[in-house]
Write a structure and sequence with these properties.
Layout: H1 3-7, E1 10-14, E2 17-28, E3 31-36, E4 49-54, H2 58-69, E5 74-80, H3 84-94, E6 101-102, H4 105-108, E7 117-120, H5 128-136, E8 140-143, H6 151-164, E9 168-170, H7 178-188, E10 195-203, H8 206-214, H9 227-230, H10 233-243, E11 247-255, H11 285-292, H12 309-319, E12 336-343, E13 348-354, E14 363-368, E15 371-375, E16 380-384, E17 389-395, H13 411-425, H14 435-454, E18 458-459
Parallel strand pairs: 3-17, 4-5, 4-7, 5-6, 7-8, 8-9, 10-13
Antiparallel strand pairs: 1-2, 2-3, 10-14, 11-12, 11-18, 12-13, 14-15, 15-16, 16-17
């Protein structure tokens, strides 16, 4: 493949699905910008797809905002959310009538089917039951990852989706990130020859770790899901997807090293608001939520334009897990985790998830017989061993307003767009992340966790 062909607009058929990335402009001699092109399988919708959202927290807001932006394509007609503030906010955004507002997901299914689809963005341990019920009633489903907390539950959902002939799209949004789309295209087109190995790194960023996996909803793996699934099934999935090889074996190591009671600073208390050494702590809840007020603050459901905002937040920290000392929680999630994976055709991969970084944004290196790819989601660099030339590709993404820091590289809304078209056309082939294709990375995660706990190399067995 010569250089001219490499730089042409690349089109890749993924089963029946077509994803394109269109070159936009030449920035300099060896640098190009690009974006995801229009899926040619999309058709004008006769009417908007209707959906009910279960869980109006962070991810529910992201997917719901697509409907708010494009109401002719997707209309949210119902919501189930036990937190009154979130229920009210979501209902107001989408003009949901009172009769279609529910406290729990169970309440939704006491009614006959009244929408085309269900968006499941409830906590991890509340994915399985509503998903199974929705399938029984004939809904198509947009399912936040992970699919479910156990291997059996994942397999049950897959089996019922096939039996009922319903669409279940798993929110592996990195498959829609222009950065990873380009990486897969280049590999498929032979830009680096035969793939030999891949190194993938997910720096969680130290505050994100303390927020989500020490204080937050996913701090206890027994109550939710192991961190390899809760955080990194995205990464296991994207490694498999970009190299397009079946996984065979996996081995993992990792532990909870730092966020433990014995590492608490002398003089520290259980709550940051009463702690005498809080000013010197990098994980101070007072500094992160009350003073910096970053996007992580959304979990505290602080009303807009509230008087004495800082004082309001401090009060909430007094009674919330988000105000507790990171060294004195009942957390058990590893803060560092490494895996090695054997794929088909003798391709190997290593993946490292690390809490203790000052930055986020996934880093990937793909080594091939004729070249390599190196990237950090902001740019992807191709080196050709034959010509010794370097080419840089810079993705242009449309981030969801207010959610720019989620690290998904612009894939969120592109996934929803394909889901809406798939439901409208009754054609799951428009999606790259149906449950049939996405379950493999979950099985990799379950086997990785078993390997980490038992010190064994685990075989990965796909559903027959």
């Amino acid at each position: 493949m010569n250089r001219r062909n490499l730089l042409k607009t690349l089109t890749l058929s993924l089963g029946a699905t077509v994803i394109t990335s269109d070159l936009l402009a030449k920035v300099d001699k060896n640098t190009y910008t690009y974006k995801i092109g229009r899926n040619p399988l999309h058709k004008p919708l006769d009417k908007a797809v209707t959906a009910i959202t279960l869980g109006a927290g962070n991810r529910g807001m992201v997917y719901g905002d697509y409907a708010a932006r494009t109401p002719k394509d997707l209309k949210i007609v119902g919501v189930a959310e036990p937190i009154a503030f979130r229920n009210e906010r979501y209902a107001k955004i989408h003009s949901i009538p009172q009769e279609n507002r529910f406290n729990t997901w169970e309440d939704v299914f006491k009614r006959p089917k009244f929408a085309d689809a269900i968006i499941i963005s409830t906590p991890d341990n509340m994915h399985y039951a509503p998903c199974m019920k929705a399938l029984e009633l004939g809904y198509d489903i947009l399912l936040e990852k992970p699919i479910a907390p156990t291997e059996k539950e994942c397999r049950d959902i897959l089996a019922l989706a096939k039996k009922k002939n319903r669409i279940v799209a798993v929110c592996h949004v990195l498959r829609y990130a222009p950065y990873f789309v380009k990486m897969r295209e280049l590999i498929a087109k032979g830009a680096i020859g035969e793939v030999v190995s891949i190194q993938h790194f997910e720096p969680i960023e130290h505050i994100h770790m303390s927020h989500s996996y020490v204080r937050g909803n996913w701090h206890n793996s027994k109550e939710t899901t192991p961190i390899i699934l809760a955080k990194s099934c995205h990464d296991l999935d994207i490694i498999k997807w970009v190299i397009n090889k079946p996984s065979k074996k996996i081995v993992a190591m990792g532990d909870l090293k730092w966020f433990r009671k014995e590492n608490a600073p002398a003089g520290s208390s259980d709550k940051c608001v009463t702690c005498s050494v809080e000013r010197d702590c990098p994980y101070s809840a007072v500094k992160e939520y009350a003073e910096r007020q970053t996007h992580f603050l959304s979990v505290l459901d602080v009303p807009d334009n509230i008087p004495n905002r800082k004082e309001y937040i401090l009060k909430k920290l007094e009674t919330s897990n988000y105000g507790r000392c990171v060294y004195k929680m009942d957390n058990d999630q590893p803060d560092h985790y490494v895996t090695s994976i054997q794929f088909g055709d003798s391709v190997t991969a290593s993946f490292s998830m690390e809490a203790f970084t000052s930055y986020h944004g996934r880093r990937t290196r793909v080594m091939g017989a004729m070249g390599d790819l190196v990237g950090d989601m902001k740019e992807l660099v191709h080196n050709d061993f034959r010509t010794r030339k370097e080419t840089k590709f810079i993705p242009k993404v449309e981030e969801v307003k207010g959610y720019e820091d989620h690290g998904h590289g612009g894939g969120d809304w592109l996934l929803v767009k394909d889901f809406v078209n798939a439901v409208s056309q009754r054609n799951p082939a428009l999606l790259t992340s149906t449950i049939d294709d996405s379950i493999e990375s979950h099985l990799m995660g379950f086997m990785a966790e078993e390997s980490r706990k038992n010190g064994k190399v685990m075989d990965i067995k796909m559903p027959s």
